[in-house]
Structures are given as structure tokens and as C-alpha cells.
Design a protein that fits this description.
With 720 residues, the protein is α+β, with helices and mostly antiparallel strands. It contains 27 helices and 16 strands.
Length: 720
């Protein structure tokens, strides 16, 4: 303290310090207000954007609902239907018994049945899958969809072939509905376990008369609605990756998800409590027409809007991941904050420098200080040039017309010229039209939308292959600089080539192991190759990415690796083996994971092999994990391996028929593999060449192929 008191700092110094502090605080406040205002404006823009999409999806859903009622209304207003229904009802009440009267009623009923059948087929109330299926004679069909004509007592006068019987729960639901106006049997899992709805409209004795006392009955329509209703939730042309429209409703204290979710959960299969903190669906139901930042079913932060659906107790919510929606804005605001902070610091530094120079009584000293400051800034610029020129990546800036305004040393060397010579020239004249076109198209989008973009460019093939990874950043225009784009490009050709070569080597090694193991177990000939190929097709059907498909390919090829540690006598036993021996064979999959655990595949192949015996309900081995904790790759390879195993002959049994194997898989689908992989596998086998792949080995008739035949089979299956 004594040292500070001896400095005798003038009062003017304290005044300057106060001015600087106030200026810094004021500037900081203005920067903060600007950032918050910009963030609010962007959120409002997203509110409008999401609201437009939500209104569009609501309109499509409501139009679909109105169309269903309109089909039944047109039937109810048909004068022939009204007349015949009244006549048949009168015959039932009067107990007519003469042959002429019975024939008349029969003819009228036959006409009504034809009318209902044609309408059902045209309007989606006919269940073609059920009607065309082969059913044992002693098994009663339970209809899934149809139309029925009921009298006021709920008796069925006429019904289409596959109309569900109006008994039990369905009868109770119809009884609750208003008789004199249209009614709704809300969305539920029908007889087949798929989303189903019912619609009712009254029938009056005189066409156009809506007096309730003249009502003679009602028309009931039941249909499976998944293929019709849920496509209305998709917004055409939407490119937002995380955007999702959902239908929800309140059922007591829980929220039901009526439509499929992006995480793969089917409709009507998952409920959440309404009191979950910040739950987007709860907000949507409680605040129809509102907008907010909430949490979705996966606890991700989302922006959400909601709309009530007319005539049904549903709420439509439309959401997008907050990070995706605001990423560009937050990046821009961070840039603004950094630049503003640097500018503010520079301003403060200049003020301090000016104050120091102005406080000097000697002009020469002041000029010298200015020269020193100028030199420092010049050195900073040189330093920045040194930094960019020593980067192995290309860094350059171009205007919206494709003219260079900056280029580092790497960019100029790759172009075969100097950085100075590139300034002011077009990209076409410097790097050629092909490369210039690749960059220019992306630069145009970046400049117009003022949003960064990241691209990977591939050109040439084989030895001439070149892969460039580039980041395009927009540059805002000012008085001294036109708007343009900053490009940072890396040549990753060697990395990509090395990665592809490594993956090809892995595949070759795995196939060599397949051939070796198949010599030990002739009943599993080419088993792993078939599993791998069909599992990859299932992955494609489910829309998995390239890394996931590579994981499935590798794991499928290695699925039988552990058989090397199982005796040939056990593998080729002629009799049904014991429970203990079966357990030993099943554990070979876990052994396979241990064998390759030290291999760096670059994708989770080892974890996939280790989880092959895990079950969706948590009853599997070795860790007893369940649900989504099991890798999708493990579930796909596991279900495919199970199917091929059942379809393959064994020394102690013949192969199962395809239908028997699929029934076995479907029976255990929910407990073992989860809700969607079995369905995807069935589709692949029936419609995407799965059966054709199995047919490639049918010519072997169970014999062990020669090495040459095995190699050719592997190649043929891989190319299928």
C-alpha cells in the first residue's frame, strides 16, 4: 500500500480509467442485447416455419377423416339403401313368412351386400390380405375391416365378408356412440394388432331428413388405417433431418403416441406420463396452438408447435431438434461475439495507446509509439499469413462471382501458381472448370443462404481417385469487401484409400476363415456368407448408415468363427445332441467375440458378436441387456443367423420349411429380437432376393462343395 501511495497517480488517470470501464461495460451490454435479439428473431422465424408445416399436416389429417365419414354419408343418403333397409327391417318386425316376401327380402339384402362390398373395396374398408389368405376349413376367420348396416337395436342387417363381428368390446363402443349423428371408434390396435379405427353415420327413413325420430339404423365402417393415415404426417420436400410430426392423445394420466416415432417405436406401443418434466407431447396437448422449447420422448431438446385435430380427441405436434434448428444461428452469434470481443479489445487497446501518446509531452515519442504500434499490427498480419501458409490444408476465399480474394501457400502450390497471382482471378482460370464447378455450386448455396456447408468431393477412379473434404463458410459483405465464401479443403485421398483397403482386407480374411470352418462343419457350408449378405439387405431395408452396414457385414461373416473350438464329432453328430452340447455350440458366438477382440475393425464388430445372444426382454446372455441397449447390428445378425440356421440341414434333422421358420421367429419376435427386425427380414426374404440367395446352394444337395465351388459361391452371393 505504501508503494501505491508513493506513485502519486494524477486524477486524470482515474478519469480515463473510469471512461474505459464504462465504455467496455456499455459495449458489452449492447453486444449481449444484439445476440439475444438475434436469437429471439430466429426462434420466432422457426415458430412461423413449424406452424406452417403443422397447419398443413393438420389439414391433411382432417381431410382424411372427413373423407372416411363422407364415404359412409354417401351410403346413408342412398335412397335405395334407405328403402331396402326399411323394408328388411319391417319384414323382421312383422315376422313375414310367405315365400314371395322372403325372396323379396333376400333380393334386397343381396343388393345391399353388393353395394356395401363395392364401397368397401373402393374406399379401403375391405381387408384384401385376409380375404385372399388360405385358412383351414375348421378355423373361423376374424375380419379386420368392413362395412355393416345395423338397425336401431344394434342388430346386423347386412355386413361385408370381413367385417369384424359386432360383439364384446366393439358392441360396447358402438352402444356408447350417439345414434342420430356421426360417431367415432377411436384409434386402437385391432384384431391383427395394427392401428384400426371405426366410423358410424345414421340412416334416416327419408333422404335428406335429419329428424332423429325417423332414424332407422346406422352404417358402421371398420378399417386398418396405418397405410392411409400416417403418410399424411410426412411433409413433402422437408429436408430437416430431425423434424417429426406426431399424433398424441391423453388417456388418463398418460400420453399415448398414436403414430410411428423416428426411434422405430410403432404406434400405440409406448406411453409416457403426462407429468414428465418439459415433455413436448404434454405441452402440445395442454397448449394447443402453442410454441415452446421442450424435451421429446428421447429427452432431446426440441422446438415444438401443436394443433388440435377437429372431430377427434387428438393433438398434432410438430417438432425439430433444437441443435439442428439453431445451429447456424448459434454459430453465427458465436462468431459475432468473438469478433465483437476482439474489436472491443482492440478499441480499448487503441484508446489506451492514444491516451498514452496524448499524455506525452514529446511529439517525437508519440510518433515513435505510433510507428511501433503499426509495426506490431504488420507483424500480426505477417504472423497470420505464416500460420495459414504453414497449414497442410487449402485455405482460400472467393467472391460470389468466383474470384479469389485470398489464398494460402498450400492452395497456390496445388494450383501451380503464387498466392499473389491468384488474387482477382476466377476459379475456372486457376484450377480448371471441373474443380471450379464443384466448389462454385456449394459456394453459391452457402452465400445465398448464409449457412456453412460441409462436402466430400470424389473425382477419378482407381489410381486417379482424389477425395477432397471441404468446409464452406459464408463471408458477409461490407463497404470494403464483397460477399463471398471461405473454403478450407483437405485432401483425404490416402486416408479413404487406406480405409477401403483395410476393410477389403478384413472381408478377404473373414471369407478365408469361412472356407476353413466350412470344411470342419459341412452342414454350415457358406452359412456365414449367406447370413452376412441377407443381414446387409435387412440393414438397407431399415435405412441404416454405411458404418452400421459394414459392422453387420463383418459380424455376419465371423458369426461361426467360434466353431473352431467345437469338436467335429459334436458338430456332425447323427443324433439329437444333449442340452449341454447344444449350450456349448451356442456359446461359440461369444468365443468368436473373444477371438477378435484385439482387432481394430473401426466399427463395433466385437460388441455385435458379443450381443448376438442378448434378448429384447433382457433374458439373454451374457450381460442380460435389453431393448435399445442391444445394438441394432446384433439384433439383425442374430435374427438372420437364427433363420438361416433353421433353414439349413443338420446331421440329426432336416431343414425346416420357410413358413415354419418364419412362424417360429414371429412367435419370439417381441421377446427375442424386438419389434421391427423380424418384419424387415421377412420382407427381404420375400421381396428383395433373400430366397434367391438361399437357392444358390440348393444345387449342392447337402454335399460339401469343393474349395473352388465355395469360392465361386461366395462371390456369387456377395454380388447378388
Amino acid at each position: 500500500m505504501s508503494f501505491i501511495s508513493e506513485l502519486k497517480i494524477p486524477r486524470s488517470v482515474y478519469l480515463w480509467i473510469l471512461v474505459i470501464v464504462v465504455g467496455v461495460l456499455g459495449s458489452g451490454g449492447l453486444i449481449y442485447k444484439f445476440i439475444e435479439d438475434e436469437r429471439s428473431r430466429n426462434q420466432f422465424a422457426w415458430q412461423v416455419r413449424l406452424g406452417i408445416v403443422a397447419d398443413s399436416r393438420r389439414a391433411d389429417v382432417e381431410e382424411w377423416l372427413d373423407n372416411q365419414y363422407q364415404v359412409l354419408t354417401d351410403l346413408a343418403q342412398n335412397s335405395s339403401l334407405q328403402f331396402y333397409a326399411m323394408d328388411i327391417l319391417a319384414a323382421m318386425e312383422e315376422g313375414r313368412s310367405s315365400p314371395s316376401q322372403d325372396k323379396t327380402a333376400q333380393a334386397e339384402a343381396k343388393y345391399l351386400l353388393s353395394l356395401l362390398t363395392v364401397t368397401a373395396e373402393n374406399a379401403g374398408f375391405a381387408d384384401e390380405k385376409k380375404s385372399n389368405a388360405d385358412v383351414n376349413a375348421n378355423v373361423a376367420q376374424v375380419g379386420l375391416s368392413g362395412l355393416a348396416l345395423l338397425d336401431m337395436k344394434g342388430r346386423v342387417l347386412v355386413a361385408t365378408r370381413n367385417m369384424p363381428p359386432i360383439v364384446g368390446w366393439l358392441e360396447e363402443e358402438i352402444e356408447k356412440l350417439p345414434k342420430a349423428q356421426r360417431g367415432l371408434i377411436d384409434l386402437h390396435n385391432g384384431v391383427s394388432g395394427t392401428p384400426t379405427m371405426g366410423f358410424t353415420v345414421p340412416i334416416f327413413s327419408v333422404q335428406g331428413n335429419s329428424v332423429a325420430t325417423d332414424q332407422v339404423g346406422m352404417i358402421v365402417g371398420i378399417k386398418e388405417v396405418g397405410d392411409e393415415l400416417y403418410p399424411n404426417l410426412k411433409q413433402p420436400g422437408n429436408v430437416d433431418q430431425s423434424a417429426e410430426a406426431l399424433l398424441v392423445r391423453m388417456d388418463g394420466a398418460v400420453i399415448e403416441y398414436l403414430s410411428p416415432r423416428q426411434d422405430g417405436t410403432p404406434p400405440l406401443k409406448n406411453n409416457l406420463t403426462a407429468d414428465s418434466p418439459d415433455l413436448a407431447s404434454a405441452f402440445a396437448i395442454n397448449t394447443p396452438g402453442g410454441f415452446g422449447e421442450k424435451r421429446d420422448y428421447l429427452n432431446n431438446a426440441v422446438l415444438v408447435v401443436s394443433r388440435d385435430i377437429a372431430t377427434v380427441p387428438w393433438t398434432l405436434l410438430y417438432k425439430i431438434d433444437r441443435n439442428e434448428a439453431l445451429e447456424a444461428t448459434e454459430s453465427r452469434l458465436r462468431t459475432v461475439l468473438i469478433v465483437s470481443t476482439v474489436a472491443l479489445c482492440f478499441f480499448v487497446a487503441v484508446i489506451i495507446a492514444v491516451w498514452r501518446y496524448g499524455a506525452s509531452v514529446r511529439s517525437e515519442q508519440a510518433m515513435e509509439s505510433y510507428r511501433e504500434t503499426s509495426l506490431k499490427f504488420e507483424n500480426i498480419l505477417k504472423f497470420m499469413r505464416v500460420i495459414t501458409d504453414n497449414q497442410p490444408t487449402e485455405i482460400f476465399a472467393v467472391t460470389e462471382h468466383g474470384e479469389y480474394t485470398f489464398a494460402n501457400l498450400t492452395a497456390s502450390e496445388n494450383a501451380g501458381t503464387t498466392a499473389q497471382d491468384m488474387i482477382g482471378k476466377s476459379m475456372t482460370s486457376v484450377v480448371g472448370p471441373i474443380k471450379a464447378k464443384l466448389y462454385s455450386e456449394t459456394n453459391k448455396d452457402v452465400i445465398e443462404n448464409f449457412e456453412p456447408a460441409h462436402r466430400v468431393y470424389r473425382s477419378g477412379e482407381n489410381d486417379d481417385l482424389q477425395v477432397i473434404r471441404a468446409s464452406h463458410l459464408p463471408l458477409r459483405a461490407d463497404d470494403n469487401y464483397p460477399r463471398g465464401a471461405l473454403v478450407v479443403a483437405d485432401d483425404i485421398t490416402e486416408f479413404v484409400a487406406e480405409q477401403e483397403a483395410r476393410r477389403a482386407g478384413m472381408r478377404q480374411l473373414s471369407r478365408a476363415l469361412i472356407l476353413l470352418l466350412d470344411q470342419k462343419d459341412p452342414y454350415s457350408t457358406i452359412h456365414a456368407v449367406i447370413v452376412s449378405r441377407i443381414a446387409v439387405l435387412v440393414a438397407e431395408e431399415l435405412g441404416l448408415d454405411d458404418d452400421q452396414k459394414l459392422t453387420i457385414d463383418m459380424a455376419g461373416n465371423l458369426v461361426n468363427l467360434g466353431k473352431a473350438f467345437v469338436s467335429s464329432e459334436l458338430l456332425n453328430a447323427d443324433e439329437v445332441i444333449s442340452k449341454e452340447d447344444r449350450a456349448q455350440i451356442r456359446e461359440h458366438m461369444l468365443v468368436a467375440a473373444d477371438i477378435v477382440k484385439t482387432v481394430n475393425f473401426g466399427v463395433p464388430v466385437v460388441d455385435t458378436l458379443r450381443q448376438l445372444k442378448e434378448c429384447w426382454d433382457g433374458s439373454g446372455l451374457p450381460a442380460g441387456i435389453s431393448g435399445d441397449a442391444i445394438l441394432i447390428s446384433a439384433r439383425i445378425v442374430g435374427v438372420t443367423n437364427s433363420l438361416i440356421g433353421m433353414l439349413s440341414p443338420r446331421s440329426y434333422r432336416a431343414p425346416l420349411k420357410f413358413e415354419e421358420a418364419m412362424v417360429n421367429l414371429q412367435t419370439n419376435a417381441e421377446a427375442r429380437f424386438g419389434p421391427n427386425v423380424v418384419a424387415a427380414l421377412f420382407h427381404v426374404m420375400e421381396n428383395r432376393g433373400g430366397k434367391e440367395i438361399l437357392g444358390m446352394i440348393s444345387a449342392l444337395d447337402g454335399r460339401l462343395p469343393s474349395p473352388g465351388e465355395a469360392v465361386q459361391l461366395i462371390q456369387d452371393i456377395s454380388e447378388t
